[in-house]
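#structure-requests
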Amino acid sequence: MALDQGHDQDNRTDHNISSNSCQRCEGCDAHYYWCHLDNTQKFFFKIMVGDFQEKMASHGALIIPDKFVKKFKGQISKVIKLEAPDGNKYDVQATRDLNKIVLGSGWATFATFYELKEGCVLVFRYIGDSHFRVLIFDYPSCCEKEVFHVVINYGSNAQEKDIRFDQSLVSKTRCRNDGSGKEESHQRCGHCDVHFYWHHMDDREKHFVRLMIGNFRRQMSIPEKFVKNFRGQISEVIKLEAPDGNIYDIQVTKSLNKIVLGSGWAVFSNAYELKEHDVLVFRYIGDSHFKRLIFDPSGCEKELFCVVMKRAPNVQEIGISDDQSMDSPSLRSDEHVTSPEDSQETMNSGSLQETTEPLSVLATGCNLTAMQKTEVDVLVKKIRPVIPFYITSMNKTSLSGSLVFCKDYAVKYLPHEDQFITLCHPQKSNIWVDNLKVITDGASMLSAGWLCFVHHNELRESDICVFEVSKSDGKVTMVVHSLERSHCLPGKKPVSQSFIVKGEATEEEERDDEHTESDYYYSRFANYLTDEEQEDIFGSASIQLGNPVYVAVMRKTHVSGRNFLIIPSKFAAKHLAERSHDILLLRSNRKGWCVKYYYHERSTRGGFTCTRWTKFIRDNKLREGDVCVFELLKGMSKVTMMVHVSRKVDGRFVLVG
């Protein structure tokens, strides 16, 4: 397909790819990624899961992601080359079957030589002529397999590259294979290779990977192994550079061998729409700066965020080399592409300034915190509004009477006579209709329909609302974004957005903390699980994508005495019937237990209790401190939950059979 042709049939639109004429459009960005972006900047990943070793033993097969095969415009011949981190190249046969490409003969040799095991993550980068470079990550460390970054021995079928191991680099390291402590000739030795990787290899060639599971939207930790061994600099504020070239400052918290990404991470996560089971690959490029690839569960990159069109005003604008590879230790400085600069003006009052077009307008008396300003900038980057956002703070009048748009904004961007408009919420399908009235001084006002919107979306005093205004065929629509409350009114405690389920004992109250756009729910104590603990738990649980999940840490009242476990109200309201009924609890490779779920109509909460729940506890020998992951199985004739039980052994959670 020629570069100047239109979209693929399934993405055909009249949009131009130009940043001047097109707002962010998934069809355009996907078209640009697959049809215009240099093929050598395209990646996919595979996780070694299930019976891959058994399949490999029988017919040595690996399937390239269907989406990559369908969309990719580059050449993939019948024999492809896989280049490992140590420089060895393997010829692997690629068989086409409809929209599938299966790696056959040669793949088993590659997988065996590089000791691929269940949980390993492989990232493939196309570099031309049916040639892929491969990064290999170990599980559960999430770091690269160090032993395969030093070229000493070659596989029997690999093509030898003109690369040799520099003996001087490990001359100070003694190889103690026989325990004698004597230096020996260097055959491939894990001890020496690990030392070489962490102590001598260029830091800018080092990567780690993270799977988005559990409580990933609030914070994310760098793998402990990477933190413990990394020799480069990681300061209190690091820079994360996304595939679209935008750079975010993220504050980190250091504690022993832990580095947790905190302030700024949630903004990044929201900006790039991170979801359960997305995979992120990080490459260190120096000075506490990391580049990132973002993959979705299809195995391919998120195309929407690989196109540089227009930058958010708060992120740093940089020159981007046309070689954005994850495995190149340096950027080329002679060929940079920059995007158009955005206007960074905002209003601190209700009147407009006679300068370049603003991207947002602050109502009089509306003051944003630094975090809220960042959230607005993220919205600007994501939506790229044609009409500037109108930002205002909720007060008693706007919550109980009417909401007024200042004169200067109304005159310039809103209808000049009374008109019915549509209000909507970005995360709900409901719409609200209101009559936008023009009042005597030229300002505009919402009233009755607005109050319905306030009631249904539970807006409160001091909430910040961002109005995204659009016009089509004379009709006006306002999408109202409510920013996270990061402050409270004087003398008042901040209002929690998490629902509290009232139990008989205050100590045992359970809070169901639902992650946005996710069906993962957590008890109060489950919220204290660290990222590493959640990785151990979810990594071994094999949860089916799309199944709702409730995570509970077993307390004394759950496993002894009253034997009562509360099911979160939000989970129950969304996924269970509003009545008492039986639920079948399953354990892997074991029988099922029919347990009574008791629903309390007044409190709209329910849970497991009495004899059958007690039997489940005793039969499975549950203890205080065990973590139970209740996975609601979809498509079953009766309500069924698979229960994955993890227990801490030697400081790490392991799956209990």
